[in-house]
């Protein structure tokens, strides 16, 4: 099941490359992504709300070396898998409309990327994970470098080298873990436990790779370049899916494998996340280019996710998982909207727009809803995610929670600012007049509608999603330890058994 | 001497014998067809001989390792190395076929020297005796000196041959002197005997370290470790490209095989002393190789420096000095054979596209993906594999070597290794960027757009290499199982 899910896009990519004619290629690519989405939906009926891995597959890959082809999905990865498979057909549909040059290659690369990303979300063997992780760079670098805008080569090379260099040390850490425990299997490593000294070093190596991918301040410099230069569908996938690989990595690998080191570094990383939230928001506020604005907003929003993860309690982490999905949906939709506007007017500068509500009401309506979702309006999905994260953060550190809340306010500010600049005010630029600037067509509405509907579904029925996330989150060791220590504090005022980081977290109660 | 001894275990050297007979046949055929032009027949014959050699290796695969006359052994490691060299040999011959006037004119000389080089290289992997080791080294070195000067009209080819010969001869003297010192230290030219003598406190231990140092110079020259690498770019650039392609893989495989066997069977008790100097050499080799490759504009020179960096990676396996490390090195060389020869093949094809110049600037590749999508895609795969991006063969070569090194306690060396890999990605990526992302300069459209501007044999080489790089990458377990290290 999971293998079919993972490799169906590759099959699609090969077929697309071999197929004659652009219209056939378009249909096949869309068909492959939709089929993948359908397969991924089939995970839901048989889903059990338990902490364990489900739909596990395990075969020997390099038996001499103890390397296994080991896939599985749990509450943490389930929604990310579904997010990926949902965004893919939308991105393909958008590209089908707008990409003219070398369409087959473009679609094949997108499909290859889907496989790589799904592989990362599903792999339970560190070597297998590393293979997918590194491989995901190639399609994205090609998408940016070949189909991007003016400065694309610089952006593609920077993206590729930055993230490649970041994960180089992770390979050494993986080997060191193997040397210590004799296995590359995540679950076995988790059971074996690791000596604290090794945890510190290995955590730093893993964290560097993940922090660059997220991107966590101050490792974010590749992101605006990559986003601004990437073609729209590339941006959608970059923001929607690829950034999640970093936060997912923290959750899946760093937290379970290095609980001691995580507790030590939690404050530092939360601090960086806070800087990222405030810095990203302020820089977004100052942007004149709509796409860079959305790109910097990603830095801020991903900061929230990291903040939630390193709150190290159930609310924080569950909220972070949900917020990953939310951010994927809302930022993905924002990039789609920017792309739709750009295809019409070939400019992304805010000053070229204004008053669009009068000329393109449907576009403006979608823009408003998506901006509200991104800003965390209650009733929509973003609110649930941010609220749960801040709740969790408050439990571990009220100070960070206050600063995080300031970030929410800033987010509302820059998003409304963007909306005001684009849609409200006087319609002055003649190129934007009604009739000159066509409104969204049915195909484009079809691409946005599933996302917008999900905003409401998640916003109004969050428990359907959280119930599947929670068991896996509650099973994390780092979550359990502080929770126990809270009781300890209440019962006997003993110092909690964990080291400095977590004790500083608990004393804040 | 009992003559039965001579033949009893001769099967150990079956692949070498097959090739030796083959060389004689080839020379006879060449004499028989004097005066005719073209060397299609000879190239075909060479391929057949090399394939027979592969067949012979497969035939004796899995036999209990027997030592032949105290001089050569046919264990798993020797067979793995043979396989690498023979594959590199076949691919190299296919490359040279039908493409180069100089080779066409003197096919007999070219192909018999070529096969002799293959024999010498294979012998080097089997040698268990200082004398055999040296003879093997000289057989393939002499053949390669001549082959690199095969473009007699091209001054750069002559310069390459001259440089290679003079420096190579110099390195050989160091090597011989090192052998002599080791013989003095251990009282025998046999590896295992040297080890026994030294381990039991006999012999003359004070000669061991000077001996190792001198041998290291000789080996370092052959596999182009920094600081003995100066000849490499000039020779790679000047020599006929098929020879370069073959040499870059074959010489490395042979010299590393000999080096591994010598250090691990004759001098394991001195591992503590020789590991650290080799580790420093590995760091130097990787770093200097990569940093210099960054600055090259010629594709062949870039590949030459990248070859130096790869030698540094393989040296990490020797530093670790375990059985697992030697099999990792065999895997690495196996993967390297395909990706490197593949890269050279595409380079030749592009060279021919640009009027048969024997050198290609990276800038000329701009926009190549538009005109030659298949070749460009193949080149991209080779480049990504060389830089160690999974799931391609090159990644698992590095992975296995690094894993063996971490297990042997050389984590810091591996850290430097992976950082170097990240540096190397930059110059490999530059080729991909040029082919895919950059627009060609004018003059492009006057040429007929063709899918593959290469001869049929080179297309075959590219296809086989791409297939191998991908298959090895997706199913590394299979090959890691097949390729054995020392004492496995």
Automatic annotation (TrEMBL), chain A:
Family in the record: Belongs to the complex I subunit 4 family.
High-level lineage: Bacteria, Bacillati, Chloroflexota, Caldilineae, Caldilineales
Residue ranges of every copy of the NADH:quinone oxidoreductase/Mrp antiporter transmembrane domain listed in the record: 123-404
Gene Ontology biological-process entries: ATP synthesis coupled electron transport; electron transport coupled proton transport
Keywords linked to the UniProt accession: Membrane, Transmembrane, Transmembrane helix
Pfam families: Proton_antipo_M
Protein's UniProt keywords contain Magnesium: no
Signal peptide coordinates: none
Molecular-function GO terms, alphabetical: NADH dehydrogenase (ubiquinone) activity; NADH dehydrogenase activity; ubiquinone binding
Localization per record: Endomembrane system; Membrane
PANTHER family hit by this protein: NADH-UBIQUINONE OXIDOREDUCTASE CHAIN 4 (PTHR43507:SF1)
Transmembrane regions: 6-21, 28-47, 67-94, 106-124, 130-147, 159-181, 201-223, 235-253, 265-286, 293-312, 324-342, 354-377, 397-419, 440-461
Topology of this chain in the membrane: Multi-pass membrane protein
Protein's UniProt name: NADH-quinone oxidoreductase subunit M
InterPro entries in the cross-refs: NADH_Q_OxRdtase_chainM/4 (IPR010227), NADH_UbQ_OxRdtase (IPR003918), ND/Mrp_TM (IPR001750)
A GO-annotated cellular component: endomembrane system
TrEMBL record, chain B:
Reaction(s) catalysed by this chain's protein: a quinone + NADH + 5 H(+)(in) = a quinol + NAD(+) + 4 H(+)(out)
One Gene Ontology CC term in the entry: plasma membrane
EC category: translocase
GO biological process: ATP synthesis coupled electron transport
Domain NADH:quinone oxidoreductase/Mrp antiporter transmembrane: start-end pairs: 127-424
TM segment ranges: 12-29, 41-64, 76-96, 108-125, 131-152, 164-186, 206-231, 243-262, 274-291, 303-324, 330-350, 371-389, 409-429, 459-479
Membrane topology of the entry: Multi-pass membrane protein
Pfam families in UniProt: Proton_antipo_M
First-listed, main subcellular location of the protein, grouped into a coarse class: membrane
Subcellular location(s) per record: Cell membrane; Endomembrane system; Membrane
UniProt key word Translocase: yes
Entry keywords, A to Z: Cell membrane, Membrane, NAD, Quinone, Translocase, Transmembrane, Transmembrane helix, Transport, Ubiquinone
InterPro entries in alphabetical order: NADH-Q_OxRdtase_suN/2 (IPR010096), ND/Mrp_TM (IPR001750)
EC number(s) recorded for this UniProt protein: 7.1.1.-
GO molecular function: NADH dehydrogenase (quinone) (non-electrogenic) activity; NADH dehydrogenase (ubiquinone) activity; quinone binding
Family affiliation: Belongs to the complex I subunit 2 family.
Subunit structure: NDH-1 is composed of 14 different subunits. Subunits NuoA, H, J, K, L, M, N constitute the membrane sector of the complex.
Its biological purpose: NDH-1 shuttles electrons from NADH, via FMN and iron-sulfur (Fe-S) centers, to quinones in the respiratory chain. The immediate electron acceptor for the enzyme in this species is believed to be ubiquinone. Couples the redox reaction to proton translocation (for every two electrons transferred, four hydrogen ions are translocated across the cytoplasmic membrane), and thus conserves the redox energy in a proton gradient.
HAMAP family: NDH1_NuoN_1 (MF_00445)
Name this polypeptide is given: NADH-quinone oxidoreductase subunit N
Gene name for this UniProt entry: nuoN
């Amino acid at each position: 099941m999971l293998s079919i899910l993972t490799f169906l896009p590759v099959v699609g990519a090969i077929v697309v490359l071999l197929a004659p004619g652009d219209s056939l290629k378009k249909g096949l690519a869309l068909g492959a992504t939709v089929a993948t989405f359908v397969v991924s939906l089939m995970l839901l009926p048989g889903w059990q709300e338990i902490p364990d891995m489900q739909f596990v597959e395990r075969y020997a890959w390099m038996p001499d070396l103890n390397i296994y082809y080991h896939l599985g999905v749990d509450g943490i990865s389930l929604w990310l898998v579904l997010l990926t498979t949902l965004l893919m057909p939308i991105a393909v549909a958008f590209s089908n409309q707008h990409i003219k040059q070398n369409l087959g290659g473009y679609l094949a690369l997108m499909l290859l990327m889907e496989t790589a990303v799904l592989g990362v979300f599903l792999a339970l063997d560190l070597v297998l994970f590393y293979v997918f992780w590194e491989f995901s760079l190639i399609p994205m670098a090609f998408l940016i470098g070949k189909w991007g805008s003016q400065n694309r080569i610089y952006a593609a090379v920077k993206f590729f080298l930055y993230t490649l260099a970041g994960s180089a040390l992770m390979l050494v850490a993986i080997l060191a873990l193997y040397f210590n425990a004799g296995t590359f299997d995540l679950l076995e490593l988790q059971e074996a436990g690791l000596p604290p000294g090794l945890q510190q070093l290995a955590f730093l190596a893993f964290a560097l790779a993940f922090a660059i991918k997220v991107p966590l301040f101050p490792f974010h410099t590749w992101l605006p370049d990559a986003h601004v230069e990437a073609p729209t569908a590339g941006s959608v996938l970059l923001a929607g899916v690829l950034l999640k690989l970093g936060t997912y990595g923290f959750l899946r690998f760093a937290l379970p494998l290095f609980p001691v080191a995580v507790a030590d570094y939690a404050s530092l990383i939360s601090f960086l996340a806070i800087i990222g939230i405030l810095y990203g928001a302020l820089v977004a506020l100052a942007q004149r280019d709509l796409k860079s604005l959305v790109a910097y907003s990603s830095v801020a929003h991903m900061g929230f996710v990291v903040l939630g993860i390193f709150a190290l309690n159930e609310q924080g982490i569950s909220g972070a998982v949900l917020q990953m999905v939310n951010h994927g949906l809302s930022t993905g939709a924002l990039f789609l909207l920017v792309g739709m506007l750009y295809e019409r007017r070939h400019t992304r500068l805010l000053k070229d727009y204004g008053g669009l509500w009068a000329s393109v009401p449907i576009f403006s309506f979608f823009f408003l809803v998506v901006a509200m979702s991104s800003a965390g309006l209650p009733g929509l999905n973003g609110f649930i995610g941010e609220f749960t994260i801040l709740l969790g953060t408050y439990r571990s550190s009220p100070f960070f929670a206050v600063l995080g809340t300031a970030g929410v306010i800033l987010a509302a500010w820059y998003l409304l600012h963007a909306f005001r600049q684009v849609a409200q005010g006087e319609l002055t630029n003649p190129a934007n007049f009604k009739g000159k600037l066509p409104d969204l067509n049915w195909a484009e509405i079809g691409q946005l509608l599933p996302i917008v509907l999900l905003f409401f579904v998640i916003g109004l029925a969050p428990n359907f999603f959280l119930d599947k996330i929670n068991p896996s989150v509650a099973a994390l060791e780092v979550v359990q330890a502080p929770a126990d220590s809270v009781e300890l504090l209440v019962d006997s005022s003993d110092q909690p058994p964990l080291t400095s980081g977590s004790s500083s977290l608990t004393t804040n109660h | 001497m009992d003559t039965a001894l001579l033949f009893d275990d001769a099967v150990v050297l079956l692949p070498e014998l097959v090739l030796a007979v083959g060389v004689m046949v080839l020379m006879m055929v060449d004499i028989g067809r004097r005066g005719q032009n073209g060397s299609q027949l000879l190239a075909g014959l060479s391929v057949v001989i090399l394939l027979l050699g592969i067949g012979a290796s497969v035939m004796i695969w899995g036999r209990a390792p027997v030592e032949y006359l105290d001089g050569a052994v046919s264990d798993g490691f020797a067979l793995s190395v043979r396989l690498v060299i023979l594959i590199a040999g076949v691919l190299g011959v296919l490359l040279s076929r039908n493409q180069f006037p100089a080779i066409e004119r003197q096919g007999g000389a070219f192909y018999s020297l070529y096969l002799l080089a293959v024999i010498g290289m294979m012998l080097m992997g089997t040698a268990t005796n200082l004398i055999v080791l040296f003879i093997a080294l000289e057989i393939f070195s002499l053949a390669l000196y001549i082959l690199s000067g095969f473009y007699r009209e091209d001054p750069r080819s002559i310069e390459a041959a001259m440089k290679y010969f003079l420096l190579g001869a110099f390195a050989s003297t160091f090597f011989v002197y090192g052998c002599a010192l080791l013989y003095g230290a251990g009282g025998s030219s046999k590896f295992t005997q040297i080890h026994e003598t030294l381990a039991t406190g006999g012999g003359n231990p004070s000669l061991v370290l000077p001996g190792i140092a001198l041998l290291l110079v000789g080996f370092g020259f052959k596999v182009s470790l920094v600081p003995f690498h100066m000849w490499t770019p000039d020779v790679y650039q000047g020599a006929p490209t098929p020879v370069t392609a073959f040499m870059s893989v074959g010489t490395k495989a042979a010299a590393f095989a000999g080096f591994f066997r010598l250090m691990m069977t004759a001098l394991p008790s001195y591992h503590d002393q020789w590991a650290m100097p080799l580790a420093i050499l590995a760091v130097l080799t990787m770093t200097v190789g990569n940093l210099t490759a960054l600055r090259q504009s010629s594709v062949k020179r870039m590949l030459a420096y990248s070859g130096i960096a790869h030698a540094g990676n393989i040296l990490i396996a020797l530093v670790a000095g375990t059985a697992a490390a030697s099999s990792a090195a065999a895997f690495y060389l196996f993967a390297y054979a395909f990706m490197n020869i593949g890269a050279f093949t595409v380079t030749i094809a592009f060279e021919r596209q640009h009027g048969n110049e024997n050198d290609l600037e990276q800038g000329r590749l701009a926009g190549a993906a538009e005109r030659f999508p298949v070749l460009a895609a193949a080149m991209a795969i080779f480049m990504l594999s060389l830089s160690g991006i999974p799931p391609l063969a090159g990644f698992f070569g590095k992975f296995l070597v690094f894993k063996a090194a971490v297990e042997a306690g050389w984590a810091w060396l591996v850290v430097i290794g992976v950082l170097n890999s990240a540096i190397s990605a930059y110059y490999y990526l530059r080729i991909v960027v040029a082919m895919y992302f950059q627009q060609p300069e004018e003059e492009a459209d006057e040429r007929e757009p063709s899918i593959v501007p290469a001869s049929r044999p080179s297309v075959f080489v590219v296809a086989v290499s791409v297939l191998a790089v991908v298959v090895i990458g997706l199913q590394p377990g299979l090959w890691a199982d097949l390729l054995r290290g020392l004492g496995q």
